[in-house]
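Extended Data, panel c. Modelled sequence:
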Amino acid sequence: MELLYFILCAWGLTQLLVHGKVFEPIRPHHYFFHCTMCMGFHAGLLLFLLNGLTNLFSFEYTLGNAFVLSCISSAASHALSSVFDDFGINVNYTKPKN
């Protein structure tokens, strides 16, 4: 359950940093700051570093855990951002070519 909480927190933080209107005036125009995969990695790393301050999840502070959880955060943030958008579930259907 801790991993699920971590993933949801990372996705929420990533969405806020990448798409949040509150950060629009200070968000640099570099691709990195508009990429859910890039920001997801760093959001996961930040949450991992702060995990001792919360009761939602508690992971042992090791370099391996930091890297693995950051990678999980990156992948999950990108996948969830691809599936869900401001209008709900994002479904793109393309007709197969003959």
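Residues 2-23+32-85 form one domain. This feature is highlighted in the accompanying rendering.
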